[in-house]
Design a protein that fits this description.
heterodimer, A: 179 residues, Arc Repressor Mutant, subunit A, 2 domains, disordered C terminus, B: mainly alpha, 76% helix
Chain lengths: 179, 239
């Protein structure tokens, strides 16, 4: 990142290749469809490029990247909400053709299914930890929360997951076998 | 079912999730950054940004008192002076650190913006409650609103200077940033009132002086919210 700040194009490309897969997976989990995640990934990198001077070399990189990605996603979500209200009538008139994105439901399907009983903020925290590979402290930095708040969300999420897993497979849950 | 088993299930599900980036996407992203990347100067260390912010806020308070007079400071007993300005300095440093954190993505958040505002207000209420025991009220609304307005007027340049000082930063949450910056600017206005105001009635100080901070924070939040609302429209126009 420091070399990227110094203007090294190869370093920027290397960083893009290294971070993008997990970042895309995170955005994919947040976005309603695969094409949105592709667009969001590009937008995130453009935003990172524009504000690359705000990265301080002595600080961890991932929370900085994911904090920007989160903001881009929130902006995108707000835009989508606004435009969807306007476009609703058009959609009612023209039913969309069969989905041209067969992969979209597959990407991260297991994880999404597993996290479905959780609230959006609990899901996000677990996604950042499991998909982004961040620690509690880093997730707290990325989401502008306190570490205590992140711990609380994880604790609640685990409680809900335990309950959901026990309901779907009580026998395995009792014996401690993960479904 | 134990936490470790849930964690295992999550890890397995996360690993199973395939990473399938569309071909050429990363190349397109790399190309979109342009053929040549300009070198940028990283932001100064957080400590420097915080120190600069505290200096600017104190400067505004002192300049304000220089114009309107240091009568309040002169009339305060020495112990109260140390207690009030010591507490204001500490709160100013905490608020400045939080403001800087709001302007740098991925900064640690030991205290959220609402928590900061509550901490400032509660500390000041307790401190002023302990120091001032004159419970009479003279000209309560007229004198109080004059103090509130003066504090808020001087909070404006403090807030503007903070924005100029942090202009190279990037705000992740504009509303939270507005609250923290507003609270910091409000502290500057409050410090000015403590320097100049000779009305030591407890209710006057507890209400009208302390009120500068939440009102200023609310104004900051409103500004942040409007910026937040305006941002997508601006970015759509840019495209």
């Amino acid at each position: 990142m420091t070399r990227y700040q110094a203007g090294d194009h190869a370093a920027a490309q290397a960083l893009i290749e290294r971070i993008s897969p997990n970042l895309h997976r995170y955005l994919d989990a947040q976005a309603p469809n695969r094409f949105d995640a592709d667009d969001l990934l590009q937008e995130v990198w453009l935003r990172i490029h524009r504000v690359r001077h705000t990265y301080q070399p002595d600080k961890p990189l991932l929370p900085w990247v994911y904090a920007i990605a989160r903001r881009v996603h929130i902006d995108h979500y707000r835009r989508t909400i606004r435009t969807s209200v306007r476009e609703q009538r058009w959609d009612e008139l023209h039913e969309p053709a069969a989905s041209g994105e067969p992969e979209c439901a597959q990407v991260g399907h297991d994880l999404q299914e597993l996290l479905s009983p959780l609230s959006a903020s609990e899901r996000e925290v677990l996604e950042l930890m499991k998909v982004g590979g961040m620690s509690l402290e880093e997730v707290a930095r990325a989401t502008s929360c306190t570490v205590g708040s992140v711990k609380q969300k994880v604790h609640r999420a685990y409680g809900k997951l335990r309950e959901a897993m026990s309901m779907t497979n009580p026998k395995k849950a009792q014996t401690g076998v993960v479904p | 079912m134990r936490d470790a088993e849930i964690e295992q299930a999550l890890d397995r599900a996360a690993i199973r999730a395939p990473i399938t980036l569309p071909p050429g996407l990363l190349g397109r992203i790399g190309n979109s950054l342009g053929p040549r990347i300009e070198a940028v100067r990283p932001l100064p260390a957080t400590g420097i940004l915080v120190a600069g912010l505290v200096f600017l806020i104190a400067l505004v308070a002192v300049l304000g008192a220089w114009r309107t007079g240091f009568a309040g400071l002169a009339a305060l007993p020495a112990g109260s002076r140390w207690a009030i300005f010591g507490a204001l300095s500490i709160l100013g440093c905490v608020a400045a650190a939080r403001v800087v954190a709001e302007w740098i993505p991925g900064s640690p958040a030991h205290l959220v913006s609402g928590g900061l505002l509550t901490l400032i207000c509660l500390t000041l209420l307790v401190l002023f409650g302990l120091l001032f025991h004159d419970y009479t009220t003279t000209n309560f609304v007229a004198a109080g609103s004059a103090c509130l307005i003066t504090g808020l007027i001087w909070a404006v340049p403090a807030g503007l200077l903070a924005l100029v000082w942090l202009r190279r930063g990037w705000v992740v949450n504009p509303v939270a940033a507005g609250v923290t910056a507003g609270a910091l600017a409000g502290l500057s206005g409050l410090a000015l009132l403590e320097l100049r105001c000779t009305n030591f009635e407890a209710f006057h100080i507890l209400l009208w002086h302390v009120l500068v901070v939440p009102v200023s924070a609310a104004a900051g939040a409103a500004l942040g919210w409007s910026a937040h609302r305006a941002h997508p429209r601006l970015s759509r126009r840019q495209r």
